[in-house]
Amino acid sequence: LALIKRGAAATNAEVPVPWSRFSAWLECVCVVTFDLELGQAIEVHKLCKTSICYLSFPDSYSGCLGDTQLSFRLRQSVGRSSSWFGHEDAYNRDAPVTLQKEHAHFHGYVYFRQVKDASVKRGYFQKSLVVVSRLPFVNLFHSLLQVIAPEYFEKHEPCLETVCNEIDQWPAPVPGQTLNLPVMGVVMQVRILWMEKLFRTNIILIHFTALIDLHVIRCFQSVLIHVQMLWELMLLGEPVVVMAPSPTVSSETVLALVSAIAPLRYCGDYRPYFTIHDSEFKEYTTRTQAPPNVILGVTNPFFIKTFQCWPHIIRLGDLKMSGDLPKQVKVKKLTFLHKDKAFIKRLLKGIQKKRPSEVQSAILRRHLLEQTESFILPLERYLESLMPLQRSMSPWKTPPQIRSFSQDEFMKTLEQAGPQLTLKGDWTGLYRRFFRSPNFDGWYRLRHREMIQKVECLHLEAICAADLLTWTKDKSEVEIVDLILKLREKLVTRKHQLPVKEELLERLEQSIQTIISSLPEDLQTLLHRQ
């Protein structure tokens, strides 16, 4: 495994950190080659090195000749559980949840080449170029590899040095901006959306075509009649194994499944390509406990027997596996909603008429998106009812509390404000099962944090609208100084943690200065020094 990675931090604070722009997009660029004695050879680097090597090569059962692209995802360190929360930077604050950086996992994007080569002892040239990132930009990084990998296989390391230097000149990934990313004479254009645009249908579709998977219909075409059931499996975070004929099909299908519930983030674990060498192999294949909430994409026939006790198995294509094969879709009884036969018929008719796959994918994406939005909308409405009224905000008191989420109370609202879909079925049962899933926990924790921020913003607005100077007229100097210190603390905190309008912060700063100017000179001097 040869590696190019960002350099060490500069010692002089005035000098930009070497490779800082590169590291905003990528963790590293790796080259994995096959060694006759060692298998996938490791030369340098400790970034989950063994896993990266095994995940960068298709297994021998796939029979991949020529060029192959695939994706993988792995934990940053063994035994460290996934967390969508607790790490927030400027990018994650503004990006939709489905496009945020992960801090406990890496995403790997692979371009593998295997061609006959008489000069090689094994008879084949086998090498992978891999980019590793915390960003889930599947289409972008695969497009990047399509540009640089063929050139690298011809010119080797000097080519990669040049590419990495070009990436180090890219602008930072900023939501809401259209970015031009030049590399090797090609300019890739990408737009990352703002978080508040999350529930706009047309924009979500653009978001997927730009950064994730344009041809989702290709992934679901062989299991199209089960698409409703697959959506439910993803919504509920159920354990699923995808058995595929190649790592490309495996990784594309797992990523398509995860994105099927957008704009909800899938909060369980998922591995687009999983091998017997994975560090979590024992954890995910033990039979002493129920399967974990994870989606695994596999190609090795060994997994047919290993995962036969898993409740949900999807088999795709010609797996080239011996022995008894599971039927195409094996699902433990779960279906809550009836199939939308008219929609499935529309897609099947599109296949018969050879409708372009881009159009078919857009139709399917829109259907899944509208279904997820209809499911989430009653929950969003109920959350709004838990918020304190704006008129209850007092600048002289601590902000009022948000009411607790009650599942039973929410269920009562469904009679009047249930999902507005033509689909019939057990919506109540689906919601109750959703409440036990990692996706509900992830969604609620994120929304509750946003609600707390909104309450803080409303409280800040109430403070700015109040006549603070008049309030200080009959207060002691100690009380006034205490008020100033608290307002300053609130000002600093809000600048770094809340999406507050600049004019609001400026008004608060002006109020603080007005109060300070009303104090004796010695206190003014003391407060200005702090």
Briefly summarize what is shown:
By secondary structure, the protein is of the alpha+beta class.
Question: Can you walk me through this structure?
Answer:
The chain is of the alpha+beta class and 530 residues long. It folds into 3 domains: 20-77 and 89-213, no CATH class; 215-321 and 332-454, 3-Layer(aba) Sandwich (Rossmann fold); 467-529, no CATH class. 44% of the residues lie in helices and 15% in strands. It contains 20 helices and 13 strands. Strands 1, 2, 3, 4, 5 and 6 form a 6-stranded antiparallel sheet that branches. The chain has a 5-stranded mixed sheet with strand order 10-11-9-12-13, covered by helices on one side. A two-stranded antiparallel sheet has the order 7-8. Strand 2 and strand 3 form a beta hairpin. Helix 13 packs across helix 14 (407-417) and helix 16 (438-465) packs across helix 19. The longest helix is centred in the last third of the chain and has 30 residues, at 357-386.
Keywords for this entry:
530 residues; six-stranded antiparallel beta sheet; 3 domains; 44% helix; alpha+beta; single chain; five-stranded mixed beta sheet; Rossmann fold
Report the C-alpha radius of gyration, rounded: 27 Å
What general form does the structure show? globular
CATH superfamily of the largest domain: DENN domain, C-terminal lobe
User: What low-confidence regions span 5 or more consecutive residues with pLDDT below 50?
Assistant: 5-15, 42-46, 78-87, 196-213, 321-326
Mean pLDDT: 82
- When the domains are counted, the total is 3
- Classify the oligomer: single chain
* Cα distance spanning the termini: 53 Å
**Helix/strand structural class:** alpha+beta
CATH architecture of the largest domain: 3-Layer(aba) Sandwich
Roughly what fraction of the amino acids lie in strands? 5-15%
Under CATH, the topology of the largest domain can be stated as: Rossmann fold
Number of helices: 20
Q: Mind summarizing the main beta sheet?
A: 6 strands, antiparallel
CATH class of the largest domain: Alpha Beta
Overall strand count: 13
Helical proportion? 40-55%
